[in-house]
Amino acid sequence: MQVVLDGKLELPCELQFPQCLLLIVIMDKLPSQPEDVQALWCTESRLSEATTRVSLFKAVFCSFEQCAGELSLPIHLQGVKSKGQVEVAVTLYQHICVHLCTFIASFHPSLFPELDVALLNAVLSANMITSLLAMDAWCFLSRYGTAELCAHHVTVVAHLIKSCPGECYQLTNLSILLRRLFFFMAPPQQVEFIQKFSPKAAENLPLWQYISLQALPAELRKQAAHEVTRAGIARCQEWLSSSRTLGELESLNTLLSALLAVCNCASEALDIVQKTTIMEIGSQLWALLNTKLVTGQPYVQQTFSLLLPLLGFFVQTLDPHLISQVVTLQTSLLKLEPPDHVCLAVLDFVSSLGKFFIPQAFQDKILPSLSSIFASLLADRNWIVEQHTLEAFTQFAEGTNHEEIVPQCLRSEDTKNKVVSFLEKTGFVDETAAARVERVKQEKGIFREHLAKVAVEEAKWSSLQPYAKRPRQESPLEEEYRSALQAASGALEAVESLLQVSPAPDWLLLKMEMLQERIDELKRHVL
Questions:
Q1: What is this structure's pTM?
Q2: CA 509 – CA 505 distance, rounded (Å)
Q3: HEC-encoded secondary structure of 429-457
C-alpha cells in the first residue's frame, strides 16, 4: 500500500500508465472490503516527517494526469459489460470515469469527506482533462445522491466562486462545474437558490453570468431572466452616466457577461423594451472604443470581446452605420495581431452577419472588410483560431445573400484546401502512425514540464519554510500590494493615452487632485 500510494512516488514515463491501471484495479476491489480497509486506502496519512501516504482518490487523479500521451492517441481498453449490449472498446478517459463513478456508488458513506476533498482539488487542477474528469464524477455524484445533496454542492461552489479574488483558471473550472451542477437541481431547490443568491443584489450578479437559465422551468426562467436583465441594465446605465473610469470596467464586464448569458439562454423571456435597451447600451459602449484602447488595455479587450457577441445577437435590427463601424474596427485590430480571445470574439460577430442583408449603400464599405477579416483569420497558425474560423466561415457562407464575397475570402490554395477538407470532414494533415506516436511522446514531455512548474509554484505558496538564501517567506499580501500598484500604474498610463487623443473633460483635474490627496495620505501611513 505504501509503495502504491507514496506521496513522493516518481515513476518513469513508461510506468505511469500501468500505475494508473493498477490503481483502478485496486479501486474495483475495495467495495467488497470492510470499512476499515476502505478507510485505510481512501484516507491521507502522514507516517513520518518524510513519508506521506496519499488517498486512493488523489493517487488516481495524479496518475491519470501523467497519462497525457495515452489520452491523446487515444489508447482503447476493454469496456464494461452491460446486460443485453455488445461490449465495445473504450478510451482511457471513459474507462477511468466509469470505474470511478462505480466506486463512488458503492464505497462506504463514511468516506464521502475524503471524496469531496479529492474532487475539489482535482476540479481546481491546472490540468484541464483532470479537472474535467473530476467534474464528470461530481456530476454523477449529484445525480446519484439526493436533491438536498445536489443543492448543497451547488451552494458550496457558488460561495467558492464569490470568494475568488479575480480571473484565474480555478474560477473558470468552478464556473463550468456550477453551470453543469445547476441542471441537476430539483425545481424547489432552484427556487431556494434564486432567493439565496438573488440577482437583485449586486454581489450576486457575477454568479449569474455562469448559470444557464435553460436549467430552470419556464416560469422560473422568465423570473430569473427579468431580474438579471433589470439589474444588469440599471447598473450599465449608471456606468454610462458616471465618470466612466477604466478602473470600473471589471464590474461593467461582469454586467455585460450576465446580460449576454440571458440573451443566449432565455431571450424569449425578454420583452421588446428590454431587448431594445440592451442593444442601445451596446451601441453606446461601442462608441467609446478605439483601436488604441483595445490593444493597450486588457479590461477593454474583455469589454470588446463581450460587446461583439451581444451586438451579434441583435444583428438583424442593428443600424448598418454601426455594423460598418464594428467591421472597420475589427479590420484595423487584426492588422495589429491581437490576443486569441479577441480574434474569437471577432469571429463570433462576423459569422452572425451571414443572417444580415447589407444595404446597397453600405456594401462597398462592409463587404471588402468582411473578406479581409475571414482571409486573415483563415491564414492564422493558431489551431484554435483556425478551427473556429473554419466554423464561422462555413456558417457565414451558408447563410449569406452576398455569395460574391465567399471566394474573395479564399486567397490562397492552402486556404482553399483547408476549407474543402473541413467541409468534407477529412483531415488535411497526413500523419503516419509512427509519426503520431513520436509527436505524442514529445507532447507528453512538454506536459510533464508544465505540470512540474505548476507543482513548484503551488509548493512555493503552500510551504511555510523559507527558501535557501532567503531570510523570510514573502507574505501573499506583498504580492497583492504589487498587483494593486501595477493596476494603478496601468490606469494612469491609460489616462495619459486618452489625453493624447482627446481633450480632457472638465471634471478630470478635480479627480486627479483628489487622487493626489489620497496618495499623500497613504504615504503618511507608510512612513
A1: 0.79
A2: 8
A3: CCCCHHHHHHHHHHHHHHHHHHHHHHHHH
